[in-house]
Amino acid sequence: MRRTWRWILGALVAIVLLAVLVLWLLLRGSLAELDGERPLPGLAGKVTVERDALGVVTITAGNKADALRALGRIHAQERYFEMDLIRRSAAGELSALFGAKAIEADKRMRVHRLRARTEAHLQDALGSDPAAVRAYVDGVNQGLGSLAVRPWAYLLLRQAPQPWQASDSVLAGLAMYADLQDPSNPSELALQRIRAVVPPALYALLAHDGSEWDAPLAGAPRGNASLPDASQLDLHTLKAATGAVAEDADAVGSNNFAVAGALTVDGRAIVADDMHLGLRAPSLWFRVRLRYPDPQAAGGQVDVSGFSLPGVPAVIVGSNGHVAWGFTNSYIDTADFRSEPADAAVTVHEERIVVAGGTDVQFPVRETAWGPILHTHADGSGDALRWVAQLPGAVRMDFADMARAADLDQALQIADHAGIPAQNLVIGDRSGRIAWRLIGARPDRGPGCAPLGFNENHANQGCAPWPIRSDAAPSLIDPPSHRLWTANSRVVDEPTLATVGNGGYDLGARGRQIRDLLATQERFDEHDLLAIQLDDRAVFLQRWWVLLQEVIEHNDDPALKRLRTVSEHWDGRAAINSTSYRVVREFRTQVLDTLTDALLAPARAQLGEAFLAPRLAQLEGVAWPMLEQRPTNLLPPAYTSWDALLADAARRTEAELSTQGPQAHRTWGERNTAAICHPVARALPAFASRWLCMPADPLPGDRDMPRVQTPTFGASQRMVVSPGHEADGIVHMPGGQSGHPLSPYWGAGHEDWVHGRPTPFLPGKAQHTMTLVPVH
Description:
The protein is of the alpha+beta class. 33% of the residues lie in helices and 16% in strands.
């Protein structure tokens, strides 16, 4: 009997070991090829692919098409599953991979019919060099086909990857639209509904779009709101319905700034760029250097380094030795709703959503000449949305020509034809010049059709369905201060804003902090600009700390005394070991939640289920005057005095922290802990999913300061570089180059990103070299 059990146990162990070996071999079978000579059909000549210690790729080719063909191959082998997610997210095709749980997400995008629109205008989207795009596509499919085993995530999902198409590269660009511009335009619709049911003075407070923190490149700060008196608005006389307020508004990020040659020792312009987006493993971006002859480039040679987006044949931000450039999201108004009557002419498109493991879903999309109808009302009328991403020209691959720009003027000419989401471009050239320009697709609304948000009278104003344009954009070239900065807040002056519109730009505190830091020095180098990117000083919260101390200083409540003990020493930074920062931030959140609920309560009461909560990014410009002036007519009705409101917010702050244990241990790092994981990690049990995540590091930084950082949002890349001095440049990425957890490049560079240690901009010494050769 013992021998039998031993035999059974041995057999079980052998089976388990064999299963582990098979799994291991299957996983390893989808690792990218790093060395040796590999055939690549379609090449005109030999291409060298080098990887350094971080997996940064250098491609040296004989022409542009060969370089992009090789780039496509590398992107596919390192990131095909992630590329697939990008195209599917834009097209509304995730259910084909993930099943029924993705249907609603697919409907939110499928209503825009981006795949159908892309394929109808594909040639225009491919730009002036479609052969280069098609070479990239061929390289992608060859790279995918060269893997011994399909990428590991498809094994987990029991799916097979579908080939890449030229239209998919366009959809990858449209996915960035969806990430940067909300496809359902909810805040505009929310404010329209609120405006219809509340007193004008209340709507003016909710829609106030500036504060004393504004730091535009042109024009003056909008300033804080002027508060109405009791004759204009009294919250105590309005019917109200309170409701839950979101725990915290979505973080908004991205900074770019530059200094001209007049502010550097040797006349170099320096550009800093950190695009803050949702964080995941692997990183959204892929670092690459492309080198190839090009008769249209300066000196007949392209040598461009920076960040590519797998799926798109271009370096998106970087430096080519002559110009360096970076982006932040502009938040101009790129979408308009229009009310359509019940008898409006409508075309119905039957969209079929394929569902893995389930029955396909037929999804009818009703569309007018203005755009698809996103909401239908009981009387048959509907809200149609016109969004720049729906229109021909929203994506054009011509922006890839930035790789060959010789100077600032040429780069700006290329930017004028950029088919990308509307962005703040900051650029510097080798001669020391710098410029800002609003680039990308924006509505060409025409005379008399101002971007006023939701306007039921668009048709009556004579506003025809507008096209888009990207030329003749606002700009600031060679600023007298020799400094430029943008941070998702208002950049332009009032007349320009009246044309481009406000799509929900961010509070100006972050931009102002960058502007003020740039003003403190007369000489800069790359490390100085990196220090600004990593600045986690809580300048914005200083006055909130003072307010909290005033609230608790003479109060005998034991809870407030405990709060004073952990907050009386003000660190002044969103540092991982700071308790006072966490306390003050939570106090502000509690106060703003109370004020937000009170200001929205009348609209909730009137609208009921039709109520939508708008994003009130500029609420600080309303809340702080209320706290300074403390008008009785604006005091939330639940309180007898402003002192009572503030004391209650402080008590709720103390209670929130106490539920988690001793308050002295409630540091900011405990709350702000990285959760940077692969997209499929959530489908796995906890013990397995941790292998698909970056380390759970406590992170410094927060919103409303240059170092924007939350557990799942932050600098998706960070770059400081001077064109012509790339060897002195600095970069960071939160995750590695590869999407394969067994790759040596899975998390390469993550620790430098966490701790802010400079990583060289240019690739280092080659550790792996692969030669791609033509097939004759």
